[in-house]
């Protein structure tokens, strides 16, 4: 029985050693989404625009949701930033339970580095988010006539979330092989997470006893900090960002270790 390495150095080495293959798989998966459609990759831009319009109508017009007057930017871009950040979490986790199940040939018939599949899933979610963020920044510039000076700090703000999501994807992609009901459970969690983070409402609107609970959701910190650097021109909370980065890196490694320890049983149940 092959004993797959689980050290953090091996996890980083996986990313570096197979970076060419990872890049090709990300490009292939992105192209496969729109293969055969008339409009092709235009849907990658059109879909978030349509969904944004729907959310804005429901929450901005019907429910007349607002952020405090002391904050800069409009309700439109404030909401969109939250949706884009949540989209990284939602897309990656929604795919996680079927990442290994959907590639049985990689498990049974060929020698393939299965540990890169969760990385590919997270990077695909990041590509989608990059398109959404480009749209948000463009709208923000059109409405305000300026770009936030702290905008270049956005990658540093999103990195901890990406690491945390990678750890969850490693875990769920492994568990999904043995527990097929996981896909339905993850769908419920993803939906609930959208409303248990300050996406459609400001964190200041949440009563104090419940605000602490919302901060247990990793999306809350990521959404708040992304808005700070993209819209408000504020530097991120460096202490919180450091703690979140350490926690995210730990999550990524623990998920990777679990995946490597359990992958030997994949072929037996597929």
From TrEMBL:
Protein name: Transport permease protein
Protein's organism: Bradyrhizobium nitroreducens
Family: Belongs to the ABC-2 integral membrane protein family.
Predominant location: membrane
Compartment(s) of residence: Cell inner membrane; Cell membrane
Ranges for domain ABC transmembrane type-2: 39-262
Pfam families in alphabetical order: ABC2_membrane (PF01061)
PROSITE patterns in the cross-refs: ABC_TM2
Highest taxon in the source lineage: Bacteria
GO MF assignments: ABC-type transporter activity
Keywords, sorted A to Z: Cell membrane, Membrane, Polysaccharide transport, Sugar transport, Transmembrane, Transmembrane helix, Transport
TM stretches of this protein: 41-63, 75-96, 116-139, 151-170, 182-201, 238-259
Topology in the lipid bilayer: Multi-pass membrane protein
GO biological process: lipopolysaccharide transport; polysaccharide transport
Keyword Membrane found: yes
Cellular component annotations (GO), alphabetically ordered: plasma membrane
Annotated InterPro entries: ABC2_TM, ABC2_TM_bact-type
